[in-house]
Each structure stands twice: as C-alpha cells, then as structure tokens.
TrEMBL record:
<dbReference type="GO" id="GO:0000287">
    <property type="term" value="F:magnesium ion binding"/>
</dbReference>
<feature type="domain" description="Mandelate racemase/muconate lactonizing enzyme C-terminal">
    <location>
        <begin position="199"/>
        <end position="295"/>
    </location>
</feature>
<dbReference type="Pfam" id="PF13378">
    <property type="entry name" value="MR_MLE_C"/>
</dbReference>
<dbReference type="InterPro" id="IPR013342">
    <property type="entry name" value="Mandelate_racemase_C"/>
</dbReference>
<dbReference type="InterPro" id="IPR036849">
    <property type="entry name" value="Enolase-like_C_sf"/>
</dbReference>
<keyword id="KW-0456">Lyase</keyword>
<dbReference type="GO" id="GO:0009063">
    <property type="term" value="P:amino acid catabolic process"/>
</dbReference>
<keyword id="KW-0460">Magnesium</keyword>
<dbReference type="InterPro" id="IPR029017">
    <property type="entry name" value="Enolase-like_N"/>
</dbReference>
<keyword id="KW-0479">Metal-binding</keyword>
<protein>
    <recommendedName>
        <fullName>L-fuconate dehydratase</fullName>
        <ecNumber>4.2.1.68</ecNumber>
    </recommendedName>
</protein>
<dbReference type="Pfam" id="PF02746">
    <property type="entry name" value="MR_MLE_N"/>
</dbReference>
<dbReference type="InterPro" id="IPR046945">
    <property type="entry name" value="RHMD-like"/>
</dbReference>
<dbReference type="InterPro" id="IPR029065">
    <property type="entry name" value="Enolase_C-like"/>
</dbReference>
<dbReference type="InterPro" id="IPR018110">
    <property type="entry name" value="Mandel_Rmase/mucon_lact_enz_CS"/>
</dbReference>
<dbReference type="InterPro" id="IPR034610">
    <property type="entry name" value="L-fuconate_dehydratase"/>
</dbReference>
<dbReference type="GO" id="GO:0050023">
    <property type="term" value="F:L-fuconate dehydratase activity"/>
</dbReference>
C-alpha cells in the first residue's frame, strides 16, 4: 500500500518590498513568502503532494519549523486510509492534544496544519486525476458533511441542516459545472491599489484593469485621510460610476476612527471597507457595519478559525465573508466556513494575492458555486498578477478565473523557484 515517505520543507521568499507590491497601511514592506512543503510517497505512479502557508517575510522560518514538527507524524501513513476519511485526517492535526495547546486552533500551528492538510488534498486530487474543485464537487452531500469538524458549530449550523442545504443544490450541480467551465468565475483586482504606489501609477494600472474587463478594483486605505480622499476622488473621476471601488484598511483603525474615516470617503461610493479594525473584534465590526451602511463591511482573511467566522455571522458583523485558503486549517475548515456563509446568506469573496493564494482559493470558490451556495451573485475572487510564473499550474490574470483542468490543488512550485528564492541562501537573496 502506498505510504508517505518524507515531508520536505522550503523557506521561500520573494523580495516584493523592493517595488512596494503588497504594501498597505499595516504592512508597508512585506516580502511575499511561502512556508512550502512536499509530501513524498512511494506511490507506484510517483505522486507527491504540495502545500504551503503564506507569510510576508520574517517568521516564515517559524512556520517551516511548525510544518516539520507536525509533518513528522505523517511518515509511514497509509494513503488509502487517509483518502478514505479526509475528515479524520484533518482532525489528526487540529485535535492533537499537544500541538493544540499551542493554539488552540489558531496561530502558527494552525497555519502549519492548513499547509499539511492542503498538501494531502493536492496529493489526493492528483491520485484521482482531478482538479481539486472537481474532486470536491463530485462528493455526495454526506461525504462533504463528513469532512467538517462540527465541534463548536452546532449552535449555528448542524450537520443535518448542512445536509439539507447541500441536497437542495444537488440537482443543479451539472448545469453549474457546465457554466463554470464555459465562463469561469468572476475576479476583481487589487493590483492598482497598493498604498506605496503614487497617483500616476495607480490610475495607469486601474485604467489598464478596466480596459481588460475588470469591473471592481480595490484600493488600500489608512495612511492619511487626505491622501485617501484624493486617491478615491481621482479614481472615481477617471473610472466613472460603473466601476466598483472597494477599500481595504488592513486592520488599521479603532472602531470610531473607522467610522469617521469611511464617513469622509462616502461621497466617492466605496463598495466595501475591508478589515476596518482588529480581525478578532466581532462587536467592533458590527458597530462599524451599522454606522457606515450602505458601505459594506468585508473581513475574514485574518480570522483564525471557523468559530470566529461563526460568531461574525451570528453577530451580523459583515456583509462579505473573505476566506483564505492557507490561514485556517486547510480545505476542511474552509468547507465549514462556506457552509456557515450559505446558512446566513452572506456572499463569499476570497482573499488571494500573496504567493499562490489565487491558485489555491479558486478551487474553493468553484466548489462553493457548484455544490454549496449555487451562486455567483456579488461574488468575486481577489486577483493580482504577481508571482504566478513560479507555479506549474498558474492562473491567467484577468477579469475571470478559468476553471483549472490539471489534477491537484494548483499548489506546486517549480524546483528552480524553490532553489533560487530559498531564504537566506538562494541565488536571489545572495545577490
């Protein structure tokens, strides 16, 4: 029987701070990075699995160390046993009594768990010869429900309720899959909006994005209010009223500051304000949402687990829910969050960008469309043009995501990229 033989790790960092790509009010000089792993096996067809978690530089080595510590428990694991119960496989990390003490279910150990769980899903999809979105969409409602860790969720959503939701959407799966293959999934772009870009670069990139077909652009905010007013006014003047302009404060403000700031930006019709305050502040988000309406509140990229998402939804704290493929405990926990969002009728617009996050999260949105929410309405995946060339199955940057056809989770990086961008000894960092 095929087994896992080794877990290889890599500390991969890209010097994006040099051009201020990714710059925002709280993270002005990030170097986009991946704590990357490969699950080696003795499968007769030579299959392996790739996974990673995303950071912005310092601390990436800590994530690598956590992946190594947790991944050591997988050596010798029977693949058939793991694939037969992927819910139990995920819980071997999130329920581990000793690793769990370091969270529980949050922080570096949760990031590492997500990277390992995602790598196993990549391996499973490769063995099955399917892209991950298709592997998930082909599961029965009962199989999907079995993937979720229901502990702490049943006051908001029970397994039986989830089964009813999934069964109600089952009859339209084939039609939605055909639509997905034909038209893809909507995207919006953040590329013009990095806070370190000057007005000229912002407008040039935004104009190019609109010409390419994007109908929503996100601008970073939270530096100086005068700068944000100028940038929003200029973008609205140049792009017109038909383009949605979202804003993203990256957790910069206190609650009252967020309300005051967004009140001053209201004349320029921001579509949403993303992460206006601390990601754990459930009641703060609710107060901001009430005060700044009709501007929507979007959050979730730094929400650390399904329980926090549950409470954000229960408290009416958000209008748009933003999952991250590598922040929580991988595919399984994101499926739980997608089910919660569907229960509360809140659209999901995933966080992406970074290193490979676009490649990963597209699969989750496509699965959500086919099997869970059944809708593309007011849903779009964040998209940026950076760093896709390092992946063997990259997205094509544009106003829609094309459904992947290659087997796996689109997580695999080229060996040359792992070598040249290895920190601190890779050729790029040595030069």
């Amino acid at each position: 029987m095929p087994r896992i033989t080794a877990v290889e790790t890599h500390d991969v960092r890209f010097p994006t701070s040099a051009e201020l790509a990714g710059s925002d009010a709280m993270h002005p000089d990030g170097d986009y990075s991946a704590a990357y792993l490969t699950l080696r096996t003795d499968h007769p067809d030579g299959h392996s699995g790739a996974g990673f978690t995303f950071t912005i530089g310092r601390g990436n080595d800590i994530c690598v160390a956590a992946i190594e510590a947790m991944g050591a428990t997988l050596v010798g694991l029977d693949l058939d046993e793991a694939f037969a119960d992927m819910g139990a496989f995920a819980r071997r990390f999130t329920h581990d009594s000793q690793f769990r003490w370091l969270g529980p279910e949050k922080g570096v150990v949760h990031l590492a768990a997500g990277a390992l769980i995602n790598a196993m899903w990549d391996l499973y999809a490769r063995v099955e010869g399917k892209p991950l979105w298709k592997l998930l969409a082909d599961l029965s409602p009962e199989q999907i429900v079995s993937l979720v860790d229901w502990r702490y969720l049943t006051d908001a959503l029970t397994p039986d309720e989830a089964l009813d939701m999934l069964r109600a959407k089952a009859s339209g799966r084939a039609e939605r899959e055909a639509d997905l293959r034909a038209t893809g999934f909507p995207a919006y772009t953040t590329s013009p909006g990095w806070l370190g870009y000057d007005d000229e670069k912002m407008i040039a990139l935004a104009t190019e994005a609109v010409a390419a077909g994007f109908t929503m652009i996100k601008l970073k905010v939270g530096g100086r209010i005068e700068d944000d007013i100028r940038r929003f006014a200029l973008a609205r003047e140049k792009l017109g009223d038909g383009i949605r302009l979202a804003s993203d404060a990256n957790q910069k403000w206190d609650v009252n500051e967020a309300i005051d700031w967004m009140t001053r930006l209201k004349p320029y019709d921001p579509y949403w304000i993303e992460e206006p305050t601390a990601p754990d502040d459930i009641l703060g988000h609710a107060a901001i949402r009430k005060a700044v309406a009709p501007i929507k509140v979007a959050t979730g990229e730094h929400a650390h687990n399904r329980i926090l998402f549950k409470q954000l939804l229960q408290a009416g704290s958000l209008d748009v829910l933003q999952i991250d493929a590598a922040r929580v405990a991988g595919v399984n926990e994101n499926i739980a969050i997608l089910l919660l969002a569907a229960k509360f009728g809140v659209p999901v617009c995933p966080h992406a960008g970074g290193v490979g996050l676009c490649e990963l999260v597209q699969h989750l949105s496509m699965f959500d469309y086919i099997a869970v929410s059944g809708s593309k309405s007011d849903r779009a995946i964040e998209s940026v043009p950076h760093l896709h060339e390092h992946f063997t199955d990259p997205i094509s940057y544009g106003p829609s995501y094309t459904a992947p056809t290659a087997p796996g989770f689109s997580a695999r990086m080229y060996p040359e990229s792992l070598r040249d961008y290895a920190y601190p000894d890779g050729a790029i960092w040595q030069s």
